[in-house]
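Suppose a classmate hands you a notebook page containing two proteins, each written out with its sequence and a corresponding row of structure tokens. How would you begin to make sense of it? This section walks through that situation. The first entry is reproduced here exactly as it would appear on such a page.
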Amino acid sequence: MRRNWAARLRQGTIGGIRAVTLENERLRVTVLPGKGGDVVEFLHKPTDTDFVWLSPQGLRDPRDHLQGAADDVAQFIDHYEGGWQEIFPNGGAPSEYRGARLAQHGEVSALPWECEVVADSPQEVAVRLSVRTRRLPYRMEKIMRLRSGTAALEVEGRATNESGQRLHAMWGQHIVYGRPFLHAGARIRLPQGVGVIPHETAINPPARRVRAGGPWKWPTVPADGGGETDLSVVQEPGSPSDIVYVTGFQEGWYEISGHIGMRVEWDASVLPYLWMWQELGASTGYPWWGRAYTVGLEPFSSMPTDGLAAAVAGGTALTLEPHETKVLTWRAEVMA
């Protein structure tokens, strides 16, 4: 019989998409190997708090959604249920790299991953997810682990260049927060001494939260309309949409908290940047239509969000030598 205490896991489907749930006394984490390895639930059971933002359009199986004009942005947006995504080898806008056209946030977030159970005991449960990209010769793997008695998800990821060519990539964790956890006045804490670089242009023109230019010192930065704004405080619904890049991490970590909190730690030698995406309802056209209230705090290898070719040109792209494997460890823990 299925174990229903301590650390345990179950496999099934959600909306026809393969799913696996890792659970213990304090935490329930649901992952979709059938769609990008997305995390679609990160529930702290004692407070009934789910940290994951869920898009108003809901979960859509890419296999059942074939209508509409094809473009390299819609490929991600049409099937974006919210959740947390693995982003590789292209981050942000569509890009072309050495003849390969890469869609927004492509490729692995749009692909089904293989899944196998590697630990299943009352002490811990773990699954290994793996996938090969289709346009570039990479293999991705991640082990997701939950230990009994903890409120932390532990992840070890691997990116392998399976070719004899020197290649580039962008690698990121698209971690976004939403209601009911996220609310105006929630606080974001980062290590001392980090800096802020605004995105060059507004993502929802003409309004933006942070004045172009910089770099600025975290957390109080020049506001676009004059004065200052405190980036450590989540703003009210309807506040300007924006994206900034946080740099200068000696240790990779952040905390976001209100009545309860989350701490994310990662290897800053692999992901030296943090993308801070704020979509608080000000974007009233495609694709949000004023319905989004979310903040993304996304550890990334590279910047800006203009795609792999721009990261290569700017010198921030990851470099993988022939047959090289890069390893990334990160963890997300509830602070209660």
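The notebook's second entry, a different protein, reads as follows.
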Amino acid sequence: MERDDRDALLARLKVFEGQPAAVAGRGRDPVNLPMIRHWCEAMGDTDPAYTGPDAVAPPTMLQVWTMAGLSGHADRSGPYDALLGLLDAAGCTSVVATDSEQEYTRPLRPGDEVTFDTVIESVSERKATKLGTGYFVTTRTDVRVGPDLAGTHRFRILKYAPADRSRRATARRPRPVVNRDNAGFWEGVRHHRLLVQRCTGCATPRHPWLPGCNACGCPDWDTVEAGGEGTVYSYVVMHHPPFPAFAPAADRESGAAGPYAVGLIELPEGVRMISNVIGVPYDKVRIGLPVRLEFQAYDEELTLPVFRAREDLA
């Protein structure tokens, strides 16, 4: 795309900033205990604040109460869909969610009826990324109960034209998103240390890293270094889509992208984390398999913690 065409497209995209993506939307269901229970079970969150007659919903469920479900939103003729259509026409036919931010101003309680308004907050200039070239689109959703603001949810996607994979000499592993909340974790990984956050108020460990304790709400924390031992708590085997960057090392060299195992690893420090299980064929991974922490370099910039099956106990 020529520079004049890019400038013209950006001008058309910028027109959408400030336009509504949803007006006076309503949650499909009131805030309710069954959904809160399912969420807490999935997250392993046992905070008593989320149970009983005085229960509140976990703040991070904010977006849940606004979601349209599998049927989606009926109206596909608004500014947001027009914006996405314009990007599709410009060749940006792929999309990936990149990050989200939430602010909480009022607890949500069972029985609350949620309403929300969403606005297209910003459209970035044209950006070149490892996935391809495109535009970051940010929406802001204000969630209310009656006239009271309960929280704000910002959601950002990249709408992009996929890069020409045939020009890539090698498949590079995607970079992790490093932000102010998890920078300490990635700094530890860079020095081959697996650091677990620990609340200084109630000593509850947590992973992934968060700005505050989900057990007692304390904002203060320190870290403990994981000893390196663990067990497979659960796992999946990835067959599709094939992506060479995630294939085992031997397959990456050949360009093949065979199945690989992703494990939920339970550490004796009291947390679980997701990573690759290596050192054993994917079809030999099992729940309870003992593993040991390793740090694997994928290129000159990226090192990640992975877990190797212990040969003495595999």
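A careful reader of the second entry would note: The helical segments are 3-14, 33-43, 79-89, 183-190, 249-254.
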